[in-house]
Specification:
single chain, mainly beta, 8-stranded antiparallel sheet, 3-stranded antiparallel sheet, 11 strands, about 0% helix
Protein backbone atom coordinates (compact mmCIF):
# COMPACT_ATOMS: atom_id res chain seq x y z
CA UNK A 1 0.00 0.00 0.00
CA UNK A 2 1.23 3.49 -0.81
CA UNK A 3 1.97 5.39 2.41
CA UNK A 4 1.62 8.76 0.75
CA UNK A 5 0.26 9.30 -2.69
CA UNK A 6 0.32 11.85 -5.42
CA UNK A 7 -2.79 13.35 -6.91
CA UNK A 8 -4.08 13.38 -10.46
CA UNK A 9 -6.72 15.20 -12.45
CA UNK A 10 -7.90 14.89 -16.03
CA UNK A 11 -8.88 17.31 -18.75
CA UNK A 12 -10.88 15.91 -21.66
CA UNK A 13 -11.47 17.08 -25.21
CA UNK A 14 -15.16 16.26 -24.78
CA UNK A 15 -17.43 19.29 -24.78
CA UNK A 16 -19.42 18.15 -21.76
CA UNK A 17 -16.58 17.16 -19.43
CA UNK A 18 -17.66 13.52 -19.58
CA UNK A 19 -14.95 11.07 -20.61
CA UNK A 20 -15.88 9.14 -23.75
CA UNK A 21 -14.14 6.72 -26.10
CA UNK A 22 -12.14 8.69 -28.65
CA UNK A 23 -11.54 11.62 -26.30
CA UNK A 24 -8.07 13.09 -26.07
CA UNK A 25 -7.16 13.27 -22.37
CA UNK A 26 -4.47 15.23 -20.61
CA UNK A 27 -3.65 13.55 -17.32
CA UNK A 28 -1.98 15.78 -14.72
CA UNK A 29 -0.06 14.24 -11.82
CA UNK A 30 1.51 15.82 -8.74
CA UNK A 31 3.86 13.45 -6.88
CA UNK A 32 4.01 13.37 -3.09
CA UNK A 33 6.97 15.18 -1.55
CA UNK A 34 10.18 13.12 -1.53
CA UNK A 35 8.40 9.98 -2.81
CA UNK A 36 10.62 9.48 -5.85
CA UNK A 37 14.26 9.44 -4.76
CA UNK A 38 15.86 11.26 -7.70
CA UNK A 39 13.93 14.24 -9.07
CA UNK A 40 15.98 14.12 -12.29
CA UNK A 41 14.73 10.60 -13.12
CA UNK A 42 11.86 10.73 -15.64
CA UNK A 43 8.43 9.62 -14.46
CA UNK A 44 6.21 7.29 -16.48
CA UNK A 45 2.48 6.64 -16.75
CA UNK A 46 2.33 2.83 -16.37
CA UNK A 47 -1.02 1.20 -16.93
CA UNK A 48 -3.75 -0.21 -19.10
CA UNK A 49 -7.48 -0.43 -19.59
CA UNK A 50 -10.50 -2.01 -17.93
CA UNK A 51 -9.41 -4.63 -15.39
CA UNK A 52 -5.69 -3.99 -15.93
CA UNK A 53 -3.68 -5.48 -13.07
CA UNK A 54 -0.06 -5.20 -14.20
CA UNK A 55 0.26 -8.79 -15.42
CA UNK A 56 0.10 -7.83 -19.13
CA UNK A 57 2.66 -5.54 -20.77
CA UNK A 58 1.75 -1.98 -19.76
CA UNK A 59 1.07 1.09 -21.79
CA UNK A 60 3.90 3.41 -20.78
CA UNK A 61 3.87 7.13 -21.52
CA UNK A 62 6.44 9.71 -20.47
CA UNK A 63 5.23 12.33 -18.02
CA UNK A 64 6.56 15.77 -18.88
CA UNK A 65 6.99 18.59 -16.36
CA UNK A 66 4.45 21.42 -16.41
CA UNK A 67 5.82 24.95 -16.45
CA UNK A 68 4.20 28.17 -15.26
CA UNK A 69 4.17 31.44 -17.22
CA UNK A 70 7.62 32.32 -15.86
CA UNK A 71 9.20 29.02 -16.95
CA UNK A 72 9.38 27.62 -13.42
CA UNK A 73 8.53 23.98 -12.86
CA UNK A 74 5.21 23.70 -11.04
CA UNK A 75 5.92 20.29 -9.47
CA UNK A 76 3.22 18.83 -11.71
CA UNK A 77 3.60 16.46 -14.66
CA UNK A 78 1.35 15.57 -17.59
CA UNK A 79 0.84 13.05 -20.36
CA UNK A 80 -1.61 12.73 -23.22
CA UNK A 81 -3.76 9.71 -24.01
CA UNK A 82 -6.59 9.02 -26.47
CA UNK A 83 -9.29 6.76 -24.99
CA UNK A 84 -9.51 3.61 -27.18
CA UNK A 85 -12.84 2.24 -28.42
CA UNK A 86 -12.92 -0.70 -26.01
CA UNK A 87 -12.08 1.20 -22.80
CA UNK A 88 -14.42 1.37 -19.82
CA UNK A 89 -11.71 2.52 -17.42
CA UNK A 90 -8.07 3.54 -17.42
CA UNK A 91 -5.99 2.08 -14.60
CA UNK A 92 -2.48 3.30 -13.95
CA UNK A 93 0.41 3.91 -11.60
CA UNK A 94 3.20 6.46 -11.86
CA UNK A 95 6.74 5.16 -11.62
CA UNK A 96 10.35 6.19 -11.81
CA UNK A 97 11.24 2.56 -12.55
CA UNK A 98 11.85 1.78 -8.88
CA UNK A 99 8.83 2.99 -6.89
CA UNK A 100 5.21 2.90 -8.00
CA UNK A 101 2.57 5.38 -6.83
CA UNK A 102 -0.75 3.56 -7.28
CA UNK A 103 -3.02 6.08 -5.63
CA UNK A 104 -4.32 7.24 -2.26
CA UNK A 105 -5.43 4.56 0.14
CA UNK A 106 -5.12 1.81 -2.44
CA UNK A 107 -4.43 -1.72 -1.38
CA UNK A 108 -1.92 -4.02 -3.07
CA UNK A 109 -3.00 -4.62 -6.67
CA UNK A 110 -5.15 -1.49 -6.95
CA UNK A 111 -4.40 1.48 -9.21
CA UNK A 112 -5.33 5.06 -9.92
CA UNK A 113 -8.51 4.80 -12.00
CA UNK A 114 -10.29 7.02 -14.50
CA UNK A 115 -13.82 5.94 -15.44
CA UNK A 116 -14.96 6.17 -19.06
CA UNK A 117 -18.64 7.13 -19.07
CA UNK A 118 -19.58 6.92 -22.76
CA UNK A 119 -18.38 3.61 -24.20
CA UNK A 120 -18.83 1.54 -27.35
CA UNK A 121 -19.89 -2.10 -27.41
CA UNK A 122 -20.56 -4.49 -30.26
CA UNK A 123 -24.20 -5.50 -30.61
CA UNK A 124 -25.35 -9.02 -31.45
CA UNK A 125 -25.73 -8.14 -35.14
CA UNK A 126 -22.24 -6.63 -35.32
CA UNK A 127 -23.45 -3.05 -34.99
CA UNK A 128 -21.57 -0.63 -32.73
CA UNK A 129 -23.67 0.73 -29.88
CA UNK A 130 -22.94 3.86 -27.90
CA UNK A 131 -23.64 3.22 -24.23
CA UNK A 132 -23.50 5.21 -21.00
CA UNK A 133 -21.56 3.17 -18.43
CA UNK A 134 -22.30 3.68 -14.73
CA UNK A 135 -19.00 2.91 -12.95
CA UNK A 136 -20.72 2.07 -9.66
CA UNK A 137 -23.60 -0.16 -10.72
CA UNK A 138 -21.93 -1.25 -14.00
CA UNK A 139 -25.32 -0.63 -15.69
CA UNK A 140 -25.24 0.22 -19.41
CA UNK A 141 -27.81 2.54 -21.02
CA UNK A 142 -28.16 2.69 -24.81
CA UNK A 143 -27.44 6.16 -26.22
CA UNK A 144 -27.46 5.29 -29.92
CA UNK A 145 -26.07 3.14 -32.71
CA UNK A 146 -23.11 4.10 -34.91
CA UNK A 147 -24.07 4.30 -38.58
CA UNK A 148 -21.85 2.36 -40.98
Amino acid sequence: MTETSGAFNVKTSGWDGIISVGDALTIYYTPPDNYFSDPSTPLLFYGGFNSYDGSAPPLTLPLTPCWDDNDFAKGEYKCHLTVPNFARSIKFAVTDGVRYDTGPGTEEGEWFEIHVTNVQVEGEGGDVRLMRHDPITKAMTLLGVVEN
